[in-house]
Specification:
Elements (H helix, E strand, L loop, with lengths): L16 E7 L5 E7 L8 E3 L30 E2 L5 E7 L2 H10 L1 E6 L6 H4 L15 E9 L9 E9 L11 E7 L4 E6 L4 H12 L6 E4 L15 H13 L3 E4 L2 H8 L5 E9 L5 E11 L12 H9 L8 E9 L14 H19 L3 H8 L8 E2 L5 E2 L4 H12 L1 H10 L6 E13 L3 H4 L11 E7 L5 E5 L8 H13 L6 E4 L17 H27 L8 E3 L2 E4 L2 E4 H10 L14 E6 L7 E13 L6 E11 L6 H21 L30 E5 L16 H4 L1 H13 L8 E2 L3 H21 L1
Parallel strand pairs: 1-12, 8-29, 10-11, 14-15, 20-21, 27-28
Antiparallel strand pairs: 1-5, 2-4, 2-6, 3-5, 7-15, 8-13, 9-10, 9-12, 13-14, 16-17, 18-26, 19-20, 19-25, 22-23, 23-24, 26-27
Helix pairs in contact: 7-8, 7-17, 12-13, 13-14, 15-17
C-alpha cells in the first residue's frame, strides 16, 4: 500500500518481453486448426511447438480416482472457456495482445456440460471421453445410519453454494529467464508454494530440479488461488529456456474472472435425524462438488468433495452418519482450495440444517447446538469420522457469543418490531478448522505433495543480528513479525534485528508452502527448533569466554550468564566469525548457523474453532440486508500475536461476507461465464463489512510446540452460515427459508413474493 513492496509486476529485467495468451472462446470444442498470420510466425507458439513438454497430472491414490491430463496448451480439444491454446511474445503486452487477436481458431463446438448435477446424468456430454462418465471420484462414509432412520424428527433440505473467484489484490504473474552462468531456469511467480512449483516445473519441462530456481517475491493475497502449478508457468519456463531473453505474463482481471480458477461450488441433499429435545441421532448427506475440467496440481480434484465426507460433522457429536460425495468434471475452469477449503460449504450445510431441526422441534437454535456440541471433558476426542480433536471448549464459545451479541435483547427487539418495516434476525454458526495436518493425513490421499518435517534455518550474523530462512511463504499472515517473536522468545535477539528470508528455492529449506493454516504450527515449530539448537551452541561458546563449564551457564535475554559474569550474544557472534583464535578447540564446527526440522507430536492436525453470531435487518420488499452486529469468539490455542490473529479473522470475515451475500460466478447453457469484470462480480467493500467484535479463548493444543493452533482460514468459514441463518430467522414468520449462497436481494424478494402468493394460490385452487 505504501509502494515499497516488490511483486511480480515490479520485477524488471533487461530485454524483457511480454506474453499474451490465446484462450478458447468456447467451453467445449474440437480444435480443427490454428491459423497464425505469416508475419507473426516465430512469435506465436502452439502445443505443436512444445515438443517434449509433459502435461500437468494431479493424481490421487484414493480408490476410483480418474486422472485428467492438462496439457499446458490445448491438444485436440478445449474443455473450458479461457483454456490456453497458444501464446504470443512481443516487446510490450499491447503488441502481444494484438498478435493474439490476429490468431484465428477453427473450432468445432461440442455440447458443454455446465451443471454438475446434470453432468452425472446418463447421456451428458463427456469432458474426458475415455472415462465414460464425468466423475473424478466418488466416496462413501457410512457409520450405522440405519439406527437413526426411525428418529421422531426428520428434516431434509437441499442446500448449495455458488462458484466464486478468489479475487486477490494481486493476480497471478510470472517472469522467467534463463541464467546462462548457472545453467538455471529462474522463475519469479506469485505463488504460495515455490518449492512445489519447482517440483512441477521440473517434471513438466523434463529437466533436473537443480536447473530450476523459483522465486516468489511479495504476494498480494494467496487464499489458495496461488497454491497450484500454472500452465502459464510451464509455457513461460519453456519459452525462457529457448528465446534468450526474459519473458513476463501478468494476469489481468478478465483472465482471472473468466478463465483461471474458481472455488466453492457445492450442492448438498442433507437429512438430519433428531429427538424431540434436539439431540441428533444422525446425519445423512449426498454432496456434489463441481471440480471443473481438470485436476489442479498438486491438491487434485478430489480435495474438496473427499474432505466433505470427513469434515461435515463439524464440532458435533452424534452416533450415526452417512455421506456420499461426487467430484464432478464440467466444462468450467478447475476448482481450487479457497480460504476454508471445503469447510465453508460443509459449515453452511450443517448449520442451516441445525436451524431447520430447531424450527421443527420448536427450540431455539442455540439449544440444539449446545445439546450436540463436543464437550470439553471429552477432549481429546475422536469424532464419528475419526477426526482427532486435540482440545477445546465449544459450549463456552457458544455461550460467550450469545452473551456478547445480546441474544435476549435481540429477541425482544424482534418481538417489538421495527418502525421502518424491516425484520431483525439472529444467526449462529460454529465450525472447527483442522489445521497443520501433516504426513499421517496426506499420505493416504496419494497426491503429488505430502508434507513432512518442516525445516527452518537460523543464523546469527557477525554483529549479533539474526537471519531466519524458511521454505514456506508469507503473503499476508504476518510471519515476519510472528516468527521473529518465536525467535526472540528463545534467543532474545530484538525483533527489529531479525530478518526473515523466504520465497526463494535457492536460499531456503524445502517446504510444501503456505496452505492449510499450517504456518505457526509447523514453521513456528521449526524456527523454535533451530533457535534452540543455535542457543546451545552459543552457550558453549559463551561459557568458554567466561572460563566456565557449559553446565554452569544459562542463556537468558540474549546473554550467556555464568557463575562470575555474563557475555552478550553480540560478543559470541563476533568471536565465532572474527576472532576464531578465542574459541575452544572442541567448538562445534557448525558454528552459529543451524537448520532444524519439526513435526508435532501428533501430526493429524490441530483443531481451532469459533462461534459466530450475527444480527441483521432485512427489508422483505427490497431484499436489502444490513449487518447490524457481528461477534466472533475464537480459540486458536496459545496466541503468539493476538493482533495478527485479529487481522486474519477480519480479512476472512470480509471474504465470508462476500460468499454469503455477494459473490457468484454464473454460467449460461453453453458454459460461458457471465461475470468478466467487477461490475458483474460483486465484492464487499468497507461499507458492507461491519466492525466485528472478536473475543479470544486460549485452549492450548497438547501436541504443538507452544500449544498454538492454525487459524488462518477460520474467519471465512462461518459467515455464510451465520448470515444465512440470521436472514432466515428474520423471514421465518413470513414462511421464507433461503438455502443458497449468496443470499442476494433478488433471491430474498423472489422467496418473499412466493411465500406471500402461496395462500392466494391455495385459495384459488380450492
Amino acid at each position: 500500500m505504501r509502494g515499497r513492496g516488490q511483486y511480480v509486476g515490479d520485477v524488471r529485467l533487461p530485454r524483457m518481453q511480454d506474453v499474451a495468451f490465446v484462450r478458447s472462446p468456447l467451453a467445449h470444442a474440437r480444435i480443427r486448426a490454428i491459423h497464425v498470420p505469416e508475419e507473426s510466425r516465430g512469435r506465436v507458439f502452439t502445443a505443436a511447438d512444445l515438443d517434449g513438454v509433459a502435461p500437468i497430472r494431479a493424481v490421487s491414490g484414493l480408490p476410483g480416482f480418474k486422472v485428467s491430463e492438462q496439457p499446458p496448451l490445448a491438444v485436440g480439444k478445449v474443455r473450458q472457456v479461457g483454456e490456453l491454446v497458444a501464446f504470443c511474445v512481443a516487446p510490450t503486452r499491447a503488441e502481444a495482445e494484438d498478435i493474439a487477436a490476429s490468431v484465428v481458431l477453427d473450432l468445432e463446438e461440442l455440447p458443454a456440460v455446465h451443471d454438475m448435477l446434470a453432468a452425472r446424468e446418463p447421456g451428458a456430454a463427456l469432458v474426458h471421453e475415455h472415462w465414460g462418465d464425468n466423475v473424478f471420484l466418488e466416496t462413501l462414509v457410512d457409520v450405522d445410519i440405519a439406527s437413526a432412520l426411525d428418529a421422531p424428527i426428520k428434516v431434509s433440505r437441499t442446500i448449495s453454494t455458488a462458484r466464486q473467484c478468489m479475487a486477490p489484490i494481486e493476480g497471478r504473474g510470472v517472469v522467467a529467464h534463463y541464467d546462462h552462468r548457472l545453467d538455471q531456469l529462474v522463475v519469479h511467480t506469485a505463488s504460495q508454494m515455490p518449492h512445489i512449483v519447482r517440483n512441477g516445473l521440473a517434471e513438466c519441462l523434463r529437466i533436473e530440479q537443480e536447473r530450476v530456481r523459483v522465486v516468489s517475491p511479495d504476494v498480494g493475497g494467496g487464499f489458495g488461488y496461488k497454491a497450484i502449478l500454472l500452465a502459464e508457468e510451464i509455457c513461460l519456463g519453456w519459452l525462457a529456456l529457448r528465446c534468450g531473453h526474459p519473458v513476463r505474463w501478468l494476469e489481468d482481471r478478465r483472465e482471472h474472472l473468466t478463465a483461471n480458477a474458481n472455488c466453492r461450488e457445492h450442492h448438498y441433499r442433507i437429512t438430519a435425524y433428531a429427538e424431540p429435545d434436539g439431540t441428533l441421532r444422525g446425519i445423512d448427506c449426498e454432496a456434489t462438488v463441481d471440480s471443473g475440467a481438470y485436476s489442479a496440481y498438486p491438491f487434485s480434484a478430489c480435495l474438496e468433495a473427499a474432505q466433505v465426507a470427513s469434515i461435515l460433522p463439524g464440532p458435533y457429536d452424534f452416533p450415526a452418519y452417512r455421506c456420499r460425495t461426487w467430484s464432478v468434471a464440467t466444462n468450467k475452469c478447475p476448482i481450487l482450495p479457497y480460504r476454508g477449503v471445503a469447510r465453508t460449504g460443509v459449515c453452511f450445510a450443517m448449520e442451516l440444517i441445525l436451524d431447520a431441526v430447531a424450527a421443527e422441534a420448536g427450540l431455539a437454535p442455540e439449544v440444539v447446538r449446545e445439546r450436540n456440541l463436543v464437550r470439553p471433558e471429552q477432549m481429546p476426542f475422536d469424532n464419528i469420522t475419526n477426526k482427532h480433536f486435540d482440545s477445546g471448549d465449544y459450549p463456552q464459545a457458544l455461550a460467550r457469543a450469545l452473551t456478547a451479541i445480546g441474544a435476549e435483547g435481540v429477541r425482544a427487539r424482534q418481538r417489538a418490531g421495527e418502525p421502518d418495516g424491516r425484520r431483525i434476525g439472529l444467526g449462529l454458526a460454529i465450525y472447527c478448522e483442522q489445521a497443520a495436518h501433516g504426513t499421517s493425513v496426506y499420505a493416504g490421499w496419494g497426491i503429488p505433495m505430502v508434507p513432512g518435517h518442516e525445516q527452518a534455518s537460523a543464523r546469527l550474523t557477525p554483529d549479533g543480528g539474526l537471519e531466519l530462512r524458511v521454505g514456506a511463504h508469507s503473503h499476508g499472515q504476518g510471519l515476519e513479525t510472528t516468527l521473529a517473536q518465536v525467535a526472540h522468545e528463545i534467543l532474545g535477539v530484538p525483533v527489529a534485528r531479525t530478518r526473515l528470508v523466504h520465497g526463494d528455492t535457492a536460499a531456503t529449506p524445502y517446504s510444501t508452502g503456505a496452505w492449510g493454516s499450517r504456518m505457526m504450527v509447523m514453521v513456528g515449530g521449526a524456527v523454535a527448533a533451530a533457535c534452540e539448537a543455535l542457543r546451545e551452541r552459543a552457550v558453549r561458546i559463551g561459557a568458554h569466554l567466561l572460563q566456565a563449564e557449559p553446565e554452569a551457564c544459562r542463556y537468558e535475554a540474549g546473554r550467556v550468564i555464568g557463575p562470575s559474569g555474563d557475555v552478550p550474544v553480540e560478543a559470541i557472534a563476533r568471536t565465532w566469525y572474527r576472532r576464531p583464535q578465542d574459541l575452544a578447540p572442541a567448538t562445534d564446527p557448525g558454528g552459529l548457523e543451524v537448520t532444524a526440522g519439526y513435526k508435532p507430536v501428533r501430526d493429524s492436525g490441530t483443531f481451532s474453532y469459533a462461534a459466530h453470531a450475527a444480527v441483521v435487518a432485512v427489508d422483505p420488499d427490497l431484499g436489502a440486508v444490513e449487518i447490524l452486529d457481528y461477534v466472533v469468539v475464537e480459540d486458536g490455542g496459545t496466541l503468539v500475536n493476538p493482533l495478527v490473529v485479529d487481522g486474519q479473522i477480519y480479512g476472512g470475515l470480509a471474504q465470508g461476507i462476500g460468499t454469503a451475500l455477494y459473490e457468484e460466478v454464473r454460467f449460461d447453457g453453453r458454459g460461458q461465464p457471465l461475470a468478466s469484470t467487477f461490475a458483474d462480480y460483486l465484492l464487499p467493500g468497507p461499507a458492507e463489512v461491519p466492525a466485528a467484535r472478536i473475543a479470544h479463548m486460549e485452549t492450548p493444543s497438547p501436541y504443538t510446540r507452544f500449544g498454538q493452533k492454525g487459524i488462518g482460514e477460520g474467519g471465512a468459514i462461518a459467515p455464510p452460515a451465520a448470515l444465512a441463518n440470521a436472514i432466515n430467522d428474520a423471514l421465518r414468520p413470513l414462511g421464507v427459508e433461503l438455502l443458497h449462497a449468496p443470499v442476494t436481494p433478488r433471491r430474498i424478494v423472489e422467496a418473499v413474493l412466493a411465500a406471500r402468493g402461496a395462500p392466494r394460490r391455495a385459495r384459488a385452487a380450492a
